[in-house]
Amino acid sequence: MKQRIITGALMTIFVTPFIIFGSYSMAIFILILMSCGIIELLKCRKLPIYFYIICFISSFLLIFDVPLYIFEEYSFSYLEGILPNYKINILWLILFLILVFTSGIFDKNIDVGDIFYAFTSITLLSLGLKGLLYLRSIGGVDNALKGMWIVAYLLIVTCCTDIFAYFGGISCYKILGSDNIHKLNERVSPKKTIEGTIIGTIFGTGLGFIFAIFVLKDMAWYYYLLLSFILSLVGQIGDLTMSLIKRHYQIKDFSNLLPGHGGVLDRIDSLLLNSMVAAIFMSIMLFMI
């Protein structure tokens, strides 16, 4: 536990400046997460180096919306370091799909399982990180603090849900006893409980809602309540999604990069789906407002 707390504090110190400064700083941070995430996802399988390169390039294209033609309007502003909208370039997604299938056709060491695993997991990583970059870009350079507070809100809901679910589950074990506790899904995550999930959802929703109505203030209170509840639930689904991958490949953590925490993916698992949902929600609300 001591190592976990120390590593958590160091991670906070490392990550905070990227979020505060935003713009190019946030883009660099997203690139770091992308690189670490791809390596951790693909090392579950013994894949050739060129397959890593395909995934790196495809992920970069998806996240930063590199234009197909030289005269096409850029989505990601290379002058301001800002992603002004959250959309998926279907052409890059199709190209990625073609490349991974071509690899399986001509390389006998890559099977169908590798193809579908790489495509789905890298797409999930890319769209999640793209959502995070978009959320930090809201407000642009004229109102840069707006994106920072939105990311802070997302982190509060996600982290509080995770923390209170963990300690709530432990408390229920002690109070109710192991025979009276209800497992959430033993096949995917043996230690998670229904009681912990409920406690995490209540506190994640409540604390995120309180932060939103006092700091963000852009929408009616019931929108933030709804969004906080959805994000609390979806974040836990993201956590279970990565747990499912780890159980399938029989690994405890994606890596040992972060002592006491595992790998980068072990820390941002809940954040990936949450970033997508929050980005879509904010896009709709900004359009309506």
Explain this structure to me?
With 289 residues, the chain is an all-alpha fold. The protein has 9 helices and 2 strands, in the order H-H-H-H-H-H-E-E-H-H-H. The protein has helices at 2-21, 23-42, 49-64, 90-106, 112-137, 144-176, 194-216, 221-248, 264-288; strands at residues 183-185, 189-193. It has a two-stranded antiparallel sheet with strand order 1-2. A hairpin with a 3-residue loop joins strand 1 (183-185) and strand 2 (189-193). Helix 2 runs antiparallel to helix 3, helix 6 packs across helix 8 (221-248) and helix 8 (221-248) packs antiparallel against helix 9 (264-288). The chain starts with a helix and ends with a helix. The model has no long low-confidence stretch (mean pLDDT 90).
Shape: globular
Cross-sheet strand order for the largest sheet: 1-2
* Strand residues, percent: under 5%
Largest sheet at a glance?
A: 2 strands, antiparallel
